[in-house]
Design brief:
mainly beta; four-stranded antiparallel beta sheet; 48% strand; globular
Length: 115
């Protein structure tokens, strides 16, 4: 069955960086676009970034554009989110999934940005 396992979260200071990883299994990873979404405490799910199945194009929410970079490694069945110049507003649980027709969600990884 499909499994998505996010990791790499933690505590960072404003202006700092973190790199999230998502390990995927149970499906043909290279055939699917992938995305990252986040959910802050008490708020709804917010889409953050997406990448085409062949990696040819990437998309970002306005709130993270220029600060976050999404990449993928099909040989490792993994998608990554490099987060730079972190802001307190980036504090949330981060999840990976495909952009639509979601698979079962993983446990997510907590990112906390605090001075």
């Amino acid at each position: 069955q499909v499994q998505l396992v996010e990791s790499g979260g933690g505590v960072a200071q404003p202006g700092g960086s973190l790199r999230l990883s998502c390990a995927a299994s149970g499906f043909t990873f290279s055939r699917h676009a992938m995305s990252w979404a986040r959910q802050a405490l008490g708020k709804g799910l917010e889409w953050v970034s997406g990448i085409y199945s062949d990696g040819s194009d990437t998309y970002y929410a306005d709130s993270v554009k220029g600060r976050f970079t999404i990449t993928r490694d099909d040989s490792k069945k993994a998608v990554y989110l490099q987060m730079d110049r972190l802001q307190t507003e980036d504090t949330a649980v981060y999840y990976c999934n495909r952009p639509h027709s979601w698979w079962p969600w993983g446990q997510g990884t907590q990112v906390t940005v605090s001075a």
